[in-house]
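Review form for a predicted model. The reviewer records the input and the model, then writes brief findings.
Reviewer: anonymous (R2)
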Amino acid sequence: MKTTILILLCCVAALLVGLACSRKSPAGVAVVTGNTPKEMAQHVFEKYDCESCHTLGREGKFGFTPRGARLKEDSEGCVSMLTSMSVIVHVPEAERNAQQKTRASHFNEYGCAVCHQVKPGEMSLTQTGQELASLHLSCSEVQNLLARSE
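Model under review:
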């Protein structure tokens, strides 16, 4: 009897593990045992239109398409952007100065809002951002994975 119960529990556990490993995430990143991190990074790069601004560069850096180069001229950079937005979210929209309004506009234009959600008084991750973070697929990690030569 104990052996039968143990076998039954193992079968149920194997079934649950199999379902978890073959699910599709809300972000559309297939979480399948056979996918390498680089394959998932390539999927993210293509699905979220990163290639409209970036090219696959070398030595851990993205290059820029003509559109990306134009946007880069007005960009404050990703880390600076997120740092600024974490402060700007605490300023009511009507009270933001010109620089804060410009940065908030860039935040949406550059695609940050795909993963980062700005609400009055707080900044958090969207559902997509949460899923990609759980897979260790932030923008910088996608960049690093795709730049590796294997």
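Findings: The CA atoms of residues 90 and 121 lie 4 Å apart.
Further findings: DSSP finds seven helices and four strands in the chain.
Recommendation: see findings above.
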